[in-house]
From TrEMBL:
Residues 10-462 form the Major facilitator superfamily (MFS) profile domain. Keywords: Cell membrane, Membrane, Transmembrane, Transmembrane helix, Transport. This is MFS transporter. It is a multi-pass membrane protein. The keyword Nucleotide-binding does not apply. CDD domains: MFS_MMR_MDR_like. It comes from Asanoa iriomotensis. The chain crosses the membrane at residues 12-33, 45-63, 75-103, 109-128, 135-157, 163-185, 197-217, 223-243, 264-288, 300-319, 331-352, 358-380, 401-418, 438-458. It comes from the Bacteria. The keyword Cell membrane applies. Its main location: membrane. The lineage of its organism: Bacteria, Bacillati, Actinomycetota, Actinomycetes, Micromonosporales. Pfam families: MFS_1. Coiled coil: none annotated. It is found in: Cell membrane.
Length: 476
């Protein structure tokens, strides 16, 4: 296998590993009713099938990224994939709620170890600007379209086989990823623990993220006093982490990482954008099922055009457009498209026609295929070879924070609006639709804020022309 083919095969390994974990996050949502009926989950406990995964995943990304730099990113990726694969077997065989929740937590740990270093490996594999742009576009497709694909696959597997197979399907994929990864991923040595084993900093940031994400995913279940208290604790822990990074000899996150041009802005824009877009995915699914009466399979198929549109843009156009016009311009174009997506949803009716009211929204979501590759390129622009895993971990951490905040805040707003209308005597379909409309309107506001942030804080940069693609990937 020649060098170029090996690098693109390694990219396939990274993308497959990322896709597997992203699919797992969305594939579960359509199978939740079947899981509840089979294992006897109470409604409050059922949410922990998702929450256990999110808490472990989101809290460990930053630490995992730095550990990858210290002990070797290849081995961190392979270890994470192995943990995730083993946990998938445990989840697929679960016979009690407690066992499934424990398996989901372990899946989150494995996902964090693997995903945190993936972009770090990618940017060391592809150093030429044009090749890197194409590689990031391929990798970003897994994040941009993977969630929608997961909903389709989850509906098919749950209806045709059983919910167990949404986890068991990971076994052959995980084993193949490990086998190919051992052969193709670069085995660059880590820096060693002496290069930056900031144990106190790692403890502070991990604890702060655990408390913060735990509070976010449970915000609708707690009173205002408890929410404020837990957020204050999370803020104190993260403030302690910031002080530690400014004073430590070998900080976990060197300040120069966030001072690199575009990195801090890209991560801030990502939080705002993902908060709106992940909530869009969740709330549109609920609208299709709770208002229009779609089943799991039909819901997944209804979301499929969004995945196809996003994939077509991210795989076919994003790299060339970024190289031709620059990431900043394409990010702005993508954000305009996403604003239009959410703005259209603000007027979604109770009795909707899929072709007229839903399909145009799915197609307009193609703008996400421009946004995520541009953000990934900007966020990794300041990465040095010795801290690429850390920068990758920061990027993935802000991604998870945005997703968790978006779902928690917008879902809570939608539920409050719905409850108020039900209490006023309005029918359920109208009340639900009105709640979703409010959430979509707030999401559109978040995207508008992301656009203004990009316009004001991200400086234009001259991009080099893209070089011709290798023959091996011209078909991608």
């Amino acid at each position: 296998m020649n060098e170029a083919r090996t690098r693109w095969t390694a990219l396939g390994v990274l993308a497959t590993g990322s896709l597997m974990t992203i699919l797992d996050g969305s594939i579960v949502t359509v199978a939740m009713p079947a899981i509840q009926a089979d294992l006897g989950f109470s409604p409050p406990a059922l949410s922990w099938v998702v929450n256990a995964y999110l808490i472990a995943f989101g809290s460990l990304l930053l630490l995992a990224g730095r550990l990858g730099d210290l002990i070797g990113r290849k081995w961190m990726f392979l270890a994470g994939t192995a943990v995730f694969t083993a946990a998938s077997l445990l989840a697929g065989a679960a016979t009690t709620p407690a066992l499934l929740i424990a398996a989901r937590f372990l899946q989150g740990v494995g996902s964090a170890l693997a995903v945190a270093v993936s972009l770090g490996i990618l940017v060391t594999l592809f150093t030429a600007p044009g090749e890197r742009a194409r590689a990031i576009a391929v990798f970003s497709f897994t994040g941009a379209a993977g969630a929608a694909i997961g909903q389709v696959l989850g509906g098919v597997l749950t209806d045709a086989l059983s919910w167990h197979w949404i986890f068991l399907i990971n076994l052959p994929i995980g084993l193949a990823t490990i086998a190919l990864g051992r052969r193709t991923l670069p085995a660059e040595p880590g820096l060693g623990r002496r290069a930056g084993a900031d144990v106190l900093g790692a403890g502070l940031v991990t604890a702060g993220l655990v408390v913060g994400i735990y509070t976010v995913v449970n915000v609708s279940s707690y009173g205002a006093g408890r929410v404020v208290g837990q957020f204050a604790l999370a803020a104190a822990l993260l403030a302690g982490f910031a002080v530690r990074q400014a004073t430590a000899r070998d900080p976990l996150v060197p300040p120069r990482v966030l001072r690199a041009p575009g990195v801090a802005v890209a991560n801030l824009v990502q939080v705002l954008t993902l908060a709106a877009c992940f909530a869009f995915q969740v709330l549109v699914t609920l609208y299709l099922q709770n208002v229009l009466g779609y089943d799991a399979l039909r819901t997944g198929l209804a979301m499929l055009p969004a995945a196809v549109a996003i994939g077509a843009v991210s795989l076919g156009l994003a790299a060339r457009l970024n190289a031709r016009f620059g990431e900043r311009r394409m990010l702005l174009v993508g954000l305009v498209s996403l604003f239009g997506t959410l703005a259209l949803l603000v007027r979604v009716p109770v009795h909707a026609s899929y072709a007229v009211d839903v399909l145009p929204v799915m197609l307009l979501a193609a703008g996400f295929g421009l946004v995520l590759p541009a953000l990934a390129s900007l966020a990794m622009s300041g990465a040095r070879p010795d801290d690429a895993g850390l920068v990758s971990g920061v990027f993935n951490t802000t991604q998870q924070i945005g997703m968790a905040l978006g779902v928690a805040v917008l879902s809570t707003l939608a539920a409050a609006r719905t409850d108020g209308l039900l209490a006023a005597g309005r029918d359920a379909a109208f009340a639900l639709t009105s709640g979703y409309r409010l959430a979509f309107g707030v999401g559109a506001g978040l995207v508008a804020l992301a656009f203004l942030t990009t316009l004001a804080l991200l400086k234009p940069a001259v991009r080099p022309a893209i070089e011709p693609a290798p023959e091996f990937i011209k078909s991608v």
